[in-house]
């Protein structure tokens, strides 16, 4: 149904509606002001009808209150008047989007240059995407290394890249990411739907593993103590002899004797004991293959098997074992191998 200023149906309904309104207005105006009353009634009737608020013209609108209806501009609109064509995509209150707007779509990219003060969070918000989407399609392994002037690809929809493995099918990948194969097929233009191993495809709506996202954003662990870092992860000159190079398996944080040492992430205490190098030390097992070691404690305040929360006190800083002064030695293991803790700490 089209509604316009030159639509005969409108004139017919204007007359009917104006008659009703004129009757209402009569209650509040003297009988001898008929001309004013009718002028007012006709103008108001026309206005209400054009908005679709009058049941004489659009009775279904009054029956379907509580629903939303999408409207589109008629291509035949002209200077003679505005035409509105109703599009039958009504949906109930409380739903996020009509089905028409959530169909699978082809993956497209735009380019964006990182500006001053941009963060992965603000960029994702500005483009209406999840952080995961921008991180994945740009193969970002550490968001802290993003720099002003760097070019990023911005996808037109949420999702992540997935590397196809031998034996993968659209159906198995869709099941893994809890999506439908048609969305994957459409986004990647997989016609026919044959997959090639070791290539990457886009999975609409998928997200990164939460642990992986924390790793990339550098907020997987909390600081076990706050202090000055006196030795970083990696090769260094021996602090005991001042000669040679040795690989330091963690970071050293100088703090006063007795400073509370806190668990950097929740987990279960695997070891609490003494070592000639680390002195009094604690090892905590975490999810996703992570372990943390806390060395040179003066006092251990936990025991093997205990479950500790992030920030819970597990001991006091000291200088036991092979040490040059009060500090905490902090090591992070991933699947049995040491990794640099710095990019992983909030």
Q: Topology, pairings included?
A:
Layout (H helix, E strand, L loop, with lengths): L1 E2 L4 H19 L7 H17 L8 H5 L3 E2 L2 E3 L10 E3 L4 E2 L16 E5 L6 H8 L3 H7 L13 E5 L3 E5 L6 H7 L4 H8 L11 E5 L5 H8 L10 E4 L2 E4 L7 E4 L2 E4 L5 E3 L4 E9 L3 E7 L4 E11 L6 E2 L4 E5 L9 E8 L2 E3 L7
Antiparallel strand pairs: 1-4, 2-5, 3-4, 6-7, 8-9, 10-13, 11-12, 13-20, 14-19, 15-16, 15-18, 16-17, 17-19, 17-20, 20-21
Helix pairs in contact: 1-2, 4-5, 6-7
Helix content: 10-25%
Secondary-structure-based class equals: alpha+beta
Q: Find the CATH superfamily of the largest domain.
A: Glucose Permease (Domain IIA)
Strand content: 25-35%
The CATH class of the largest domain, by name, is: Mainly Beta
**Which whole number gives the mean pLDDT?**
80
Q: How big is the Rg?
A: 34 Å
Count the E strands. 21
* Coarse shape: elongated
Keywords, separated by commas or semicolons:
alpha+beta; Glucose Permease (Domain IIA); disordered N terminus; three-stranded antiparallel beta sheet; 23% helix; Membrane-bound Lytic Murein Transglycosylase D, Chain A; 21 strands; 346 residues
